[in-house]
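Supplementary Methods. Inverse-folding protocol.

Structures were first reduced to a discrete structure-token string of length 223. This string, shown here, constituted the complete conditioning input.
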């Protein structure tokens, strides 16, 4: 009984926020311990389903870096990073799509469905949702002190968002779970940082600050 009373009190306190944000789309970056700890995973799924029930449309953009790394190591491939970006050759890109668009994405979909929601998994390639181009990175040369380009492979940045697919899913009452993979105009597939995808999607919708569930330094405790 005490738990029910506490939940009722929480809902009453949340009413002004529910009224303010009802009908809006919230982009949620899902990562960090919330993807590992079983209690946090269950709580995340329940919260997302509740958001949908009260009239807020959640769109989930998920990470999966540790899972990609473990799969690469099992396949005898050592992960490499430059300034926090995963060096992504063609073989690594295949692993990224397999892990993010397959295993991780479907686990999230199943988690939300079990909590009473209707989740659909997709990547940025579905419906041309995330348009991308190759990310150009530079660093200063130790010899000359001048900036030089670094090629880290099939790592991309968002150039455009076409949210029609998400709008159609929203009309059907579905909760989209998106793996951060996009494609260029020439069909090239790119691995994209999930935080950047979440930010780009948010700009295509309400422009509200996206929600980040992460344990990454530099993002915690920030608005």
């Amino acid at each position: 009984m005490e738990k029910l009373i506490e939940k009722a009190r929480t809902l009453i306190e949340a009413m002004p926020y529910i009224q303010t944000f009802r009908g809006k789309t919230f982009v949620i970056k899902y990562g960090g311990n919330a993807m590992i700890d079983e209690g946090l995973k269950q709580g995340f799924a329940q919260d997302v389903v509740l958001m949908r029930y009260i009239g807020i449309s959640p769109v989930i953009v998920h990470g999966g870096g540790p899972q990609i790394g473990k799969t690469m190591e099992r396949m005898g491939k050592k992960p490499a990073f430059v300034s926090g970006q995963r060096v992504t050759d063609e073989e690594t890109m295949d692993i990224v799509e397999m892990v993010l668009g397959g295993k991780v994405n479907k686990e999230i979909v199943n988690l939300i469905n079990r909590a009473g929601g209707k989740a659909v998994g997709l990547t940025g390639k579905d419906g041309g949702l995330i348009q991308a181009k190759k990310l150009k990175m530079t660093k200063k040369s130790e010899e000359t002190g001048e900036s030089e380009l670094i090629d880290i492979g099939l790592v991309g940045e968002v150039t455009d968002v076409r949210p029609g697919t998400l709008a159609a899913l929203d009309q059907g009452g579905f909760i989209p779970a998106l793996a951060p993979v996009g494609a260029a105009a020439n069909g090239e597939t790119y691995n994209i940082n999930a935080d950047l995808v979440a930010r780009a999607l948010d700009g295509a919708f309400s422009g509200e600050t996206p929600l980040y569930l992460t344990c990454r330094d530099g993002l915690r405790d920030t608005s």
